[in-house]
Amino acid sequence: MTKIYPDSHIEVQGLSARYYNLVLTIISGGVYDTFLKSAIAAMNIQPGEHILDLGCGTGRNACLIRNYTGNNGHITGMDISEEMARQFRRNCAAFNNVEYKNQRVDIPFKEKKSFDTVFMSFVLHGFPHEVRLQVLQNIFNNLKPNGRFCLLDFSQFHLKDMAFPYRILFKTFECKYAFDFVERDWKQILTGAGFMNFDEYFWFKKYVRLLIAAKK
Ligand SMILES: C[S@@+](CC[C@H](N)C(=O)[O-])C[C@H]1O[C@@H](n2cnc3c(N)ncnc32)[C@H](O)[C@@H]1O
């Protein structure tokens, strides 16, 4: 498939898509699962919530989120990759309240129903900055009043100050958009996009952050 943004690394393809979960486990030294469980626990999701997972990947996140929403909640995962769609459907097959939707998240869209929470995990950093602002607009438009945006992604830091082994990993696996992402003030950007009341949690020497923001 031709890439929408050729310089981006989030449009995962081929073997990287097929073995995506395994690759993350290896890169993280085996701790990705534990990290993810703790990040999703920190989201404080309530039973019955309707959640939108943008760039949902293999469905691993959706399955964990499903532990909190329960039978009365609903999870919509959006992605554009056929391989991710296949894995998402297989991994979430046991749940009739978890659905997959083929939808680009970087162009305007509005779902019929609004969501309590929009979750985005390691996707926003991979877009050019002007595209990220469109993504934030989509998130705002698809949230209920007082709904929450949970952004799990790289935190804010100077790449030149990053500790040696992390810098090697980051520079090897990430793209130029990620290098730009980490240098920006995301609380300020989110405030400008209509969000407030921030909460944040950190992992991996504070290089990864869950930033929770409420819709104004
Ligand atoms: C780095 S992966 C993260 C997957 C998942 N969120 C996770 O944390 O495991 C990025 C995901 O975003 C999807 N993606 C990339 N560009 C997209 C776009 N324009 N619209 C929707 N999904 C996109 C990719 O197919 C891939 O599944």
Mean pLDDT: 97
Structural class: alpha/beta
Major beta sheet, specifics? Answer: 7 strands, mixed
Order of helices and strands: HHHEHEHEEHEHHHEE
* Outline: globular
Strand order of the largest sheet: 3-2-1-4-5-7-6
Give the bound compounds.
Answer: S-adenosylmethionine
Radius of gyration: 16 Å
Strand content: 15-25%
**Topology, number of strands:** 7
Helix content: 25-40%
Distance between the termini: 38 Å
Low-confidence runs: none
- Helix segment tally: 9
Walk me through the structure.
The chain has about 220 residues and is α/β, with parallel strands linked by helices. Helix content is about 40%, strand content about 25%. Strands 3-2-1-4-5-7-6 form a 7-stranded mixed beta sheet, sandwiched between helices. It is globular, with a radius of gyration of 16 Å. S-adenosylmethionine binds next to helix 4 and strand 2.
